[in-house]
Amino acid sequence: MAAAVMDKDFKLVTPDHLVKAGGDVTLPCHLSPKTSAVAMEIRWFNGRHCIYLYKNGHVTEGEYYEGRVSVNTQELQRGDVSLRLRNIRWGDEGVYTCQVISGEHKEEGRVGLRCKSPVSLL
Known about the structure:
- This protein has one domain (2-115): Immunoglobulins (Immunoglobulin-like, Sandwich).
- Helices cover 5% and strands 44% of the residues.
- The protein has one helix spanning 2-7, and strands at 11-13, 19-21, 25-27, 30-32, 41-46, 49-55, 58-61, 69-70, 83-85, 94-102, 105-115.
- It is globular, with a radius of gyration of 15 Å.
- It is found in: Membrane.
């Protein structure tokens, strides 16, 4: 019984600074201690909109983000639930929330994204 409780005793670790990017970016987020997230539900939000959902091995992408968001499902075994966002647009800037659910245990982490200017001023 204690082992089952330990499996659900995890936290989400995200950077404590804004991620700055242009083009493609990975929004880092992982479970601590390292725990397989394969059987967990993983949701990424931009504001109130769910842009990525991994549940029971199936992936659903938000309408505005179709074909642009992914989580490396091979890394889930190591607890890495980072979101890959391709072809960043100005509207993508903001705070992203990662939510991981395992049974009754739910953890959230936030990652801020700031878009770099595509034109250098130098």
